Amino acid sequence: VMTAQTAITSRVSRMGVGAREIHWESVAAITSGTAKGRWVCPWYCTIVDVLANSGTAGSGGTSDIIDVNIGGTTIFTTQGNRPVLLVGDTGFFSVSGLGVYQGVPEVVSLQPGSVVTYDIDQIATTGSALFTLTIVLSDVR
Predict the structure, then answer these.
(1) Beta-carbon neighbour count of residue 93 at 10 Å?
(2) Cβ-count burial 25-49 (b if 16+ within 10 Å, e if not)
(3) pTM score > 0.85 for this model?
């Protein structure tokens, strides 16, 4: 359940264009690894937001870090722009120093046949659970 404290406004809603999304979720504790989810793009579009959220906190060790890839290559050429959830926290992953609740990708163009996957690059000793990842897309006009 989203509350006023965690409500966000996607950049696409401010652009005045239609939005679509890729959505993955897991109720179990996340585990590190590559290609946790896979989606093949059927149209030309642009990635607008990468939103990750956790309903429960990871414990011990380090923060959870998510990466998103197109064709096996990260969309976050600046690694510090990947979504991060500090160990012991719940809610939306953030980007260090930016004070926002979404990842800031530099590679955003998709075309028919583009393969989008996500990786869990780093997790706390016990990973967060009730995890969701939503990638917001805007049609190319």
Answers:
(1) 25
(2) ebeebbeeeeebbeeebeeebbbbb
(3) no
Length of the chain: 141
Q: How far is CA 119 from CA 33, 62, 76, 107, 108, in A?
A: 6, 16, 12, 16, 17
pLDDT in single tens digits along all 141 residues of the chain: 333 333 344 444 444 456 788 999 988 888 888 888 999 999 999 999 898 999 998 888 888 999 999 999 999 998 888 999 888 888 888 876 666 666 789 999 999 999 999 999 999 888 888 999 999 999 886
- Residue with the two structure tokens 């509350």: 3
Interior angle at CA 113, CA 81 and CA 44, nearest 5: 70
Comparing C-alpha atoms, which of 117, 37, 108 is closest to residue 71? 117
CA distance 17 to 81: 24
Number of neighbouring beta carbons within 10 Å of residue 85: 26
Task: Please list, in sequence order, all residues whose beta carbon lies within 8 angstroms of the beta carbon of residue 134, skipping any fewer than 6 positions away.
Answer: 21, 22, 23, 24, 49, 50, 51, 52
Q: Where are the alpha helices (DSSP H) in 4-111?
A: 11-15
